[in-house]
Design brief:
By secondary structure, this protein is α/β, with parallel strands linked by helices. It has 13 helices and twelve strands. The protein folds into two domains: 2-145 and 310-370, Adenosylhomocysteinase-like (Rossmann fold, 3-Layer(aba) Sandwich), CATH 3.40.50.1480; 153-303, NAD(P)-binding Rossmann-like Domain (Rossmann fold), CATH 3.40.50.720.
């Protein structure tokens, strides 16, 4: 299969130890044999490794690509899309299923951001992101959510922050020492961007909800310990002042239209600031034109051939797939397994985490993050 050649040419085995282990195991045990599996992770070169592991396990694989009712597609690498089609792996859009062009007869849907939550899989769902949970809150299907615990933090804290700065560098913004960075949001992504900024010698300020506690964040101590300034998003005067002198502004709240009026006004007034979004939603709102934000408000790292390095996303993708295996096991043992959203079993996370630390290229970075 050609994408095995692409993987071997593009990556060292130490960049994907968790998926490599699953692929080797599943080639023997074949846990997905005969099951129709739809995988909706964003289609880039690094996700080929997850596809390969599932195929090794016997899955009848289809790849999902959301284009939405308005035709606004989830970012992807069109070269990889065409390569998959050339390899006779169906690439199915959400509209293909909704229109009846493609049958909704999957056994398992490995979803991302709830793009295919409208489907009716025979066994259930695995959702990759926290932002997708809202689409499954009333689901009658069993739904595992991979975005919990330490595994997802590897991707979002270490990998997404790295992707933001790699994207800036690809656009010619490569001087960070002594510059000021304002980050909206103090969850996993916001924290990761802030810490990467500190490593590059930047003066970093995080804007978040300090009064009632940020429900998306347990990172306040991490930020403070790394000399990151924290300000409350409701302090209009302070927010405007911080933005007015910023060299870089980035949103990472995960919330649509998250910015206050004072923040929007300050961004529009500060013409020198390099402005970007790292959330799935448009966090700026209609009063900030697309042209004012890099990549027209889409997540900045998606301008890259590899938005998140495989070494940072390997464990998340492995958990995504491994939870599919666990769900099939539970359905085989129990005709009526759990309903609704459930976090991953801790033993699966721990096994993948140990593999990544012991055999992966980023073991020391993970250990530093866990301190």
């Amino acid at each position: 299969m050609i994408f095995s050649e692409i993987i071997e040419e593009s990556y060292e085995p130490r960049e994907y130890p968790a998926l490599a282990q699953l692929s080797d195991e599943w080639a023997q045990t074949r846990p997905f044999w005969g099951y129709k599996v739809l995988v909706a992770t964003p289609i880039f070169r690094n996700t080929l490794v997850e596809y390969r592991a599932l195929i090794a396990g016997g899955a009848i694989l289809s790849v999902g690509r959301a284009v939405g009712d308005s035709g606004a597609a989830m970012p992807c690498d069109l070269k990889i899309v065409e390569m998959l089609k050339d390899e006779d792996i169906p690439v199915i859009t959400d509209q293909d299923i909704k229109s009846g062009k493609v049958a909704d007869d999957f056994d398992l849907v490995l979803d991302c951001a709830g793009q295919f939550s409208f489907c009716h899989p025979k066994k259930g769902f695995v959702e990759l992101t926290r932002s997708g949970v809202q689409f499954f809150e009333k689901s009658e299907h069993p739904v595992y959510v991979a975005d919990s615990g330490i595994v997802k933090r590897i991707e979002t804290v270490l990998g997404t922050g790295d992707g933001y700065f790699r994207a800036l560098e690809s656009l010619g913004h490569a001087e960070f020492e002594g510059k000021s960075l304002v980050v909206f949001g103090s969850g996993k992504v916001g924290c990761g961007i802030a810490l990467h900024g500190v490593r590059r010698g930047m003066n970093v300020c995080t804007i978040t909800n300090t009064r009632n506690g940020d429900s998306n964040s347990n990172f306040s101590n991490v930020l403070l310990n790394n000399a990151v300034r924290i300000e409350d998003y409701k302090d209009d005067e302070m927010v405007a002042q911080v933005i007015s002198t910023a060299d870089f502004v980035v949103t990472a709240t995960g919330l649509k239209n998250a910015l206050t009026q004072s923040a929007v006004s300050a961004i529009l007034a500060n013409t020198k600031a390099i402005v970007a979004n790292m959330g799935v939603e448009d966090e700026f709102g209609e009063f900030v034109p697309n042209t004012r934000v890099l990549n027209e408000k889409s997540p900045l790292n998606f301008i890259l051939d590899e938005p998140t390095h495989l070494k940072y996303i390997d464990t998340s993708l492995a958990l995504h797939a491994a939870l599919g295996e666990r769900l099939l096991q539970e359905c085989a043992e129990n005709a009526s397994p759990f309903k609704g959203v459930q976090d991953p079993p801790s033993e699966i996370e721990q096994r993948l985490l140990v593999t990544t630390i012991q055999n992966g290229a980023i073991g020391p970075e993970i250990c530093d993050m866990m301190r």
